[in-house]
Amino acid sequence: MAIEYKSNQFQGGYTGERDGYTGPGVPDIARRIFPTQPDTNNYLSSNYFQLEITRLPTLTYFCQSASIPSLTLTPVEQPTAFGLRPKFIGGQYSFEDLVVNFIVDEKMRNWYEVYNWMKSIGNMDKYSDAYDRTQTGDFFSDITLTITNSAYKPQYYVRFRDAFPIGLSSLDFNSTSTENEPIIASCTFSYTSYDITEI
């Protein structure tokens, strides 16, 4: 079925009467009647962030790096008798795990915080380690990643819902090291989803 357009619609390409298109189905990205400049020329730096995990206060203090995990939407494929399969929206969302790197303090409190959390939500060696062997709110914790601007003022909140640790890296000691380098550990969190809120 052909799509009919009115005679004066999109006539002569972009006229400025309708914002957003130069013609049928052609997004108007570069051509606008009143070009605008971005609000700021400052770039986003990798150290413009602050991580907050209420359940892990010592790890929060020694946090070195974190990231906004990737998001994937799996398309739904329709089987056909031909070599190409049409794809449609309607698949499942998949969030990458959250990985946090931190300096281990001298008393290993931040590393031990994660260790105790992981041990308490499963049956490591006895049933008493878990809370009645059921999923409870004590298993989870929300995580907030604050993204700041160049003046280190918050501009976005990234909230991870129902997060819990699923991986804790090893602590590697080395007697041949000539310098007192801090040990960097990493913790991997799984979660339900994350939301980004502009402040």
Give a brief rundown of this model.
The chain has 199 residues and is mostly beta strands. Helix content is 9%, strand content 33%.
- Order of H and E elements: EEEHEEEEEEHEEEE
Radius of gyration computed on alpha carbons:
25 Å
* Main sheet summary: 7 strands, antiparallel
Total tally of structural domains: 1
- Please report which band the strand proportion falls in: under 5%, 5-15%, 15-25%, 25-35%, 35-45% or over 45%: 25-35%
Class per helix and strand makeup = mainly beta
By DSSP (H or I, 4+ residues per run), the number of helices equals 2
Looking at the structure, what is the overall shape?
Answer: globular
> What is the arithmetic mean of pLDDT?
81
How is the CATH topology named? Answer: Pnp Oxidase, Chain A
Description of the molecule:
It is built from two helices and 13 strands, in the order E-E-E-H-E-E-E-E-E-E-H-E-E-E-E. The protein is globular and about 65 Å long. It starts with 20 loop residues before the first strand and ends with a strand. The chain has one domain (43-171, 180-198): Pnp Oxidase, Chain A. It has helices at residues 57-61, 109-120, and strands at 21-23, 26-27, 49-53, 63-65, 71-73, 76-77, 87-88, 93-95, 98-103, 141-148, 154-168, 184-190, 193-198. It has 199 residues and is mainly β. The strands form four sheets. Strands 3, 4, 9, 10, 11, 12 and 13 form a seven-stranded antiparallel β-sheet that branches. Strands 1-2 form a two-stranded antiparallel ribbon.
